[in-house]
Amino acid sequence: MAVLTGTVALVTGASRGVGKGIALGLGEAGATVYITGRTVAAGQAAVDLPGTIHETAEAVTRLGGRGIAVRCNHTNDDEVRELFRRIQAEQGRLDILVNNVWGGYEFYNDGTEFWNEKGFWTAPLSRWDKSFQAGVRAHYVASVFAAPLMIAQESGLIVNISFFAAQRDDRGVAYGAAKAADDRMAACMAHELREYNVAVVSLYPGLVRTEGVMKAAQFFDLSNSESPQFIGRVIAALAADPERMRHSGQVLVAAAVAQEYDVIDIDGKRPRPVTVDEA
Question: Which residues are catalytically annotated?
Fold first, then answer.
């Protein structure tokens, strides 16, 4: 298992789901993990799912890291700016930024409008706005504030959590366009940050057993699925690699990275990497 003792990480959108799992994976490696989100108390989430930033922080600490919960709306630049000021004041560094926060698909598993859409022209216009404002732009803004910290220490890793929808035509116009933008953003940032030894990648999870997926488990084949914490273990392994710059600018599939670094999921299995056609 990777060792990240003394490492400082920020995982955005980590009250639950993939973000929470990433925080846990970094925490069990010994990192100090800042956890952002809007849910500070049970029952107050924008979705009908469990999880708060404080619960995630407590779980990180139980696993051997140090979890620090910070309530932050990543569509509010002032709140994001203050978040990074706090990290700099308290830690003096930032080694890992995981851009996971996303918007626009809060009700995907609630059986509401998604099941009635027959084309992009029937989807609410807010889908596009939320995917780019609370997704792509939120990732850009966090990276803008993270970059100076990483440049100053001449090391760092920025990970955009993306998905195969960026390379497919049948996963929704707003979602596919936003994920493709995330991938290009990572590649362009990697180009500009390479001289400072800061790596930037896009990372594709497979089918992840999040709270939302498990709520609708009857609709999924979970035989090759991944725990949320598996994604965190993959990022921890990448962050601990002194030669990680060789991956900078690339789109990486989490399960393929796991094979490279011999990462095993929490159930003792290693998920098989899926292809674009399978996703």
Answer: 175
pTM: 0.95
Q: What is the mean pLDDT of the chain?
A: 93
Contact (CB, 8 A) for 179 and 220: no
State the CB neighbour count (10 A cutoff) for residue 180.
17
- CA 51 to chain CA centroid, Å, is 16
Architecture of domain 8-124+135-261: 3-Layer(aba) Sandwich (3.40)
Q: For 193-236, write each residue's pLDDT tens digit.
A: 999 999 999 999 999 999 888 888 888 899 999 999 999 999 99
Order across the sheet with 198-204: list the strands: 66-71, 32-37, 8-11, 96-99, 156-161, 198-204, 251-253
Name the E strands within 25-148.
Answer: 32-37, 66-71, 96-99
Amino acid letter, 124? P
CA dihedral of residues 230, 236, 242, 243 (deg, nearest 10): 40
For 124, phi and psi rounded to 5 degrees? Answer: -65, 140
> 21 has which bridge partners?
none
- CB 33 within 8 Å of CB 27: yes
Backbone phi, psi, residue 189, to 5°: -65, -40
One-letter amino acid for residue 104 of the chain:
G
Longest dimension (CA), the chain: 50
Residue with tokens 């953003």: 185
SS3 40: coil
Domain segments of the chain as ranges? 8-124+135-261
